[in-house]
């Protein structure tokens, strides 16, 4: 009987998989973006190593790299790449705080999630201004 | 108790702690490096080369990258365990990821050695 009710309620449960109307709660958003940014940072490792190698090789390579970063779309790309960096940094610190039971109630976690997103935005903006 | 928790009974706890400790090491390195950059303000190739030349900075960079390798290994492994449902495919992807991380570590060591 209980099984039958469970089966029925599963079938009748309202379902919404419309991605344009689904809104993730802020904690889920910060969390999934932490994962995503981690993967992006991993994929960007060869680019970072290449940049470091080019910058220290000799003066010509250094100037080439500096010239490369003067191009407007490279700058834009650089700013875009620092979005996952800043987010992974701040959201990671937030997770570390939660691991030691700091701000773990729903209300406080929502607040710290908003703080992380604001820090992301401010940092990216400052970085963009700094390199332009 | 902590030793018991981290070694004998729950080996997963060691990985969990590794993920957090390596995160702290990297965060500390990033903040210190940023402060050093702001203080020194290296200019041009000569300035940049002098900035990255000290042996202790190169050594610290290599050690932090070892932390990064461990951190990335755990993170990518966890993400793949959640999203790559095919075990055989996941095994190959994990091997690929491990080879990439090993190459990056050697690559960085070569870069730092040649500065």
Order of H and E elements of chain B: HHHHH
- Named CATH architecture of chain B: Up-down Bundle
Low-confidence stretches of chain A: none
Radius of gyration of chain A over all CA atoms, rounded:
22 Å
CATH class of chain A, named Mainly Alpha
Mean pLDDT over all positions of chain A: 89
Percent strand of chain A equals under 5%
As for the CATH topology of chain B, it is 3 helical TM bundles of succinate and fumarate reductases
Number of strands of chain A: 0
Give the CATH superfamily of chain B: Fumarate reductase/succinate dehydrogenase, transmembrane subunit
Largest sheet of chain B: none
Strand fraction of chain B equals under 5%
Compute the number of helices of chain B.
5
User: CATH homologous superfamily of chain A?
Assistant: Fumarate reductase/succinate dehydrogenase, transmembrane subunit
Give the number of domains of chain A.
1
Report on the structure:
The complex is a heterodimer of chains A (132) and B (115). Chain A has helices at residues 2-12, 26-57, 59-70, 72-99, 106-131. With 132 residues, chain A is an all-alpha fold. The longest helix of chain A is centred in the N-terminal third of the chain and has 32 residues, at 26-57. Chain A is elongated and about 65 Å long. The N and C termini of chain A lie far apart (68 Å). The mean pLDDT of chain A is 89. Chain B has one domain (2-113): Fumarate reductase/succinate dehydrogenase, transmembrane subunit (3 helical TM bundles of succinate and fumarate reductases, Up-down Bundle), CATH 1.20.1300. Chain B contains 5 helices and no strands. Chain B has helices spanning 2-8, 11-40, 44-52, 55-83, 87-113. The longest helix of chain B has 30 residues, at 11-40. The A-B interface holds A 35, 38-39, 41-42, 45-46, 49, 52-53, 55-56, 58-59, 62-63, 89, 92-93, 96, 99 and B 20, 23-24, 27, 30, 44-45, 48-49, 52, 72, 75-76, 79, 97, 100, 104, 107-108, 111, 114-115.
């Amino acid at each position: 009987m209980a099984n039958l009710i469970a089966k029925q309620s599963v079938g009748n449960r309202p379902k919404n998989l419309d991605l344009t109307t689904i809104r993730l709660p802020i904690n889920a958003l910060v969390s999934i973006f932490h994962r995503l940014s981690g993967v992006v940072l991993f994929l960007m490792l060869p680019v970072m190593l290449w940049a470091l190698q080019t910058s220290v090789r000799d003066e010509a390579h250094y100037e080439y790299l500096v010239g490369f970063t003067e191009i407007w779309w490279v700058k834009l790309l650089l700013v875009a790449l620092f979005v996952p960096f800043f987010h992974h940094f701040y959201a990671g610190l937030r997770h570390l705080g939660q691991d030691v039971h700091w701000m773990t109630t729903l209300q406080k976690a929502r607040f710290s999630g908003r703080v992380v997103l604001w820090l992301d935005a401010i940092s990216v903006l400052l970085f963009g201004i700094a390199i332009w | 108790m902590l030793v018991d928790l981290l070694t004998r009974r729950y080996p997963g706890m060691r990985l969990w702690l590794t993920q957090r400790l390596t995160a702290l090491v990297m965060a500390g390195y990033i903040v210190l490096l940023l402060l050093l950059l702001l203080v020194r303000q290296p200019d041009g190739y000569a300035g940049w080369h002098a900035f990255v030349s000290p042996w202790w900075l190169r050594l610290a960079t290599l050690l932090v990258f070892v932390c990064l390798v461990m951190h990335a290994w755990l993170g990518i492994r966890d993400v793949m365990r959640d999203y790559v449902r095919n075990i055989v495919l996941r095994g190959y992807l994990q091997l690929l990821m491990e080879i990439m991380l090993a190459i990056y570590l050697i690559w960085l060591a070569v870069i730092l050695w040649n500065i």
